[in-house]
Amino acid sequence: MQLQPTASHFIGGEYVEDTNGTPIEIVYPATGEVIGTVYAATPEIIERALESAKAAQKVWAAMSGRDRGRILTRAAAMIMERNHELSVLETYDTGKPYQETIAVDATSGADALEYFGGLAASLTGEHIPLGDDWVYTVREPLGVCVGIGAWNYPTQIACWKGAPALACGNAMVFKPSETTPMCALKVAEILHEAGVPAGVYNVVQGMGEVGGALVNDPRVDKVSLTGSVPTGKKVYAAAASHLKHVTMELGGKSPLIIFDDADVENAVGGAILANFYSSGQVCSNGTRVFVQKDIKEKFLKRLAERLGDAVIGDPLDEATSFGPMASARQMDIVLGYMAKGKEEGARLVCGGGRIERPGFYLEPTVFADVTDDMTIAREEIFGPVMSVLDFDTEEEVIARANATEFGLSAGVFTSDLSRGHRVIGKLEAGSCFINSYNDAPVEAPFGGVKNSGVGRENSKEAINHYSQVKSVYVRMGDVEAPF
Ligand code: NDP
């Protein structure tokens, strides 16, 4: 099986190759086979991408918001028409089951392009009357934005960053994760076909050094990263040394709190969505599942039964609902955490190891009797490992849920509406859920507090992170100077 992209990079409206860069093998996670190769961007490629973006941004920003929006909306429609093809590609890039990718990945990318395409014409300023004088404000683009992606949602991340950036009149240079280099190239190709001028959306491949070179370049005005907290700190520091704008979508160790009055079937469903979708490789996952003592055994029993219904297999088979990890490296990291859970005395309810078949498959794993000090309750695992912790009271669970450096998401299951809102109000997290988990509609802001991030993606909030306001004072009378 070979799925060689046309070329490694997409710059100035065309595919561009430079085989002098470090080769990056594209590995299909379901088999471990190498299905293609791309080359990391050389300094010449980075230069070409930035020059191209810099020049094209002026042309794009000079167009009306309505015209920009119409092009983005057209790209959204093209993505939906090509959903099958893009979903298969996403499955090859990440290993996620087609059952998921057909429903979530290209579609959420299209949602973002449609939503921000719709907003583009309404990005206006204000008029501020000051007696005879007045001030008006103009919402302007930032300039050239760099997007750096993680490997779990390569199409979605390329669109979630690209759509608001382009709607506001910016140009983008996007660097996908080296683990999943293929999907963003297709996004660039479709945007170009939809009418985005050459150079407005570029993709360059590479490892951390390429990301670093982009972040440090003076032509770049904004950096938006989706990645881990350690990388976020490095990238934020580099951007800060040039006073660049940033959006940081980082990791989490989010709490999901299940009170004993919750509907157990819904709570189990929520906990499954919070831990096993995309084989657990979701930043907002609720991996610390706090279950009130009275319903713990009932919860664990139904959870184990329902996990037994997972269909583990070929991700391209539509019946498959649980696929491999995105890379051998991530599989090894997660195996390390499974071993730590056992070593530190957590009770293994199910799973706990590798599935004996080609590719990077791990068993859906649940640990019970997990305590707050255990490594699996403190560190982000980014794999199919749920930690179930017991609790007695509301006050206790809120304090324990907040006792973490992270603050991306939080969820509560309860049939007491007042308690649901009261508890969510006290949880330190950016994206929260009551009687649900992991919904991410483009209409709602998405992002974290504490070490989980800075800024928000999606919704009207994202516009503030991809634009800046110019204010213009207009004097209608004479200027009165002191001398
Ligand atoms: P990493 O932090 O390792 O990498 C993220 C991206 O940054 C990659 O493209 C990486 O390149 C690049 N990078 C690494 N070092 C640097 C550097 N010094 N300067 C510039 N760029 C750099 O994350 P993963 O790809 O391993 O993704 C998993 C992480 O992402 C998890 O922690 C998860 O929580 C988080 N995540 C957060 C989301 C959110 O919205 N909050 C959503 C999805 C994931 P390379 O390809 O070489 O590694």
Automatic annotation (TrEMBL):
The active site is at K161, E249, C283, E457. Pathway: Amine and polyamine biosynthesis; betaine biosynthesis via choline pathway; betaine from betaine aldehyde: step 1/1. K(+) 1 binds at V27, D93. Keywords: Metal-binding, NAD, NADP, Oxidation, Oxidoreductase, Potassium. The modification Cysteine sulfenic acid (-SOH) is found at C283. Dimer of dimers. Involved in the biosynthesis of the osmoprotectant glycine betaine. Catalyzes the irreversible oxidation of betaine aldehyde to the corresponding acid. HAMAP family: BADH. This is Betaine aldehyde dehydrogenase. It comes from Shimia haliotis. The lineage of its organism: Bacteria, Pseudomonadati, Pseudomonadota, Alphaproteobacteria, Rhodobacterales.
